[in-house]
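Hi L.,

You mentioned the student needs an example of a multi-chain input paired with its predicted structure. This one should do, with 276 residues in total across all chains.
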Amino acid sequence: MKETLEILKRNSLSITDSRKIILELFLKTEGALAHADIEKNTAVNFDRVTVYRTLQTFTENGIIHQIPTTDNTILYALCKDKCEAGHHHDEHVHFVCVNCEKTVCMDDVVVPQVKLPKGFVPLQSAMVVKGTCNDCKN
Amino acid sequence: MKETLEILKRNSLSITDSRKIILELFLKTEGALAHADIEKNTAVNFDRVTVYRTLQTFTENGIIHQIPTTDNTILYALCKDKCEAGHHHDEHVHFVCVNCEKTVCMDDVVVPQVKLPKGFVPLQSAMVVKGTCNDCKN
DNA sequence: TGGCTTTTGCAATATCGTTGCAACTTTCTT
DNA sequence: AAGAAAGTTGCAACGATATTGCAAAAGCCA
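Structure written out for the whole complex:
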């Protein structure tokens, strides 16, 4: 995939199998991925450590971002245009479906500003909405 | 502490040492607590398993709620009046200080509604704001 | 108080994430 | 294109975190 290489080059990262394959997995996945999802993926069979380090590298370079969860896992999702420019924001809403358990990024839904008590200075906001997704609304 | 017993009774929970002491810890703590914080607390020295099970019981009964994080831990904080009535919402904003690393509940700051794409039905929202807190603003 | 129910703590196990190090790949230089 | 330098991978070991079964202990109710 051409886009994969472009992204890696743009971030001055060595082109390696694990990076290519894991990045492609993100590119063709709609929702967010947990570390376990990547390991489970049959086509990919890298060492756990490699997956951790790859995710860390991608996060540091603003290629993916982390999504907060309450179940003691970290989810990762691709950053869209804004992030890739280097200015790393993940200020869009994340949606977790209570039925199919998928997490998707709503890139078009911006996290609204809230008015904080005196003395609190906001730097970054994250928002996670739980509910029923598009595919499960029946 | 009288309030401790009231809360346990209201939820039809047996009065045990661990529940009393852990609940009191929440009542006298301003910010959120991680499992580790409770174990570290010198006055409390229960088995890890007991702490896990106590937190689980409290969560199920709407006494405390979980706060999503990106660092692979779960934070717990007391639910205020609204939750205790049985109708479990944790629809207030959580603030994480990037300096002192404390997490506090902003019970007065309500998570705003966002407009979701067609087909997505929201049930519950969580919002975490990172920044500098009241005590660290210097 | 006595008996039933619930909770606790121990032990064992599973999962998750990190670090050091040697072997290997990629990239750079000429 | 070949060798050197730099970066990456995989293994092994470790540490932290979380879960389950079961016997002992504590709480609850009559």
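You could point out the following to them. Chain A touches chain B through 39 residues (CB under 8 Å). Confidence is low (pLDDT under 50) at residues 82-88 of chain A.

Best wishes,
N.
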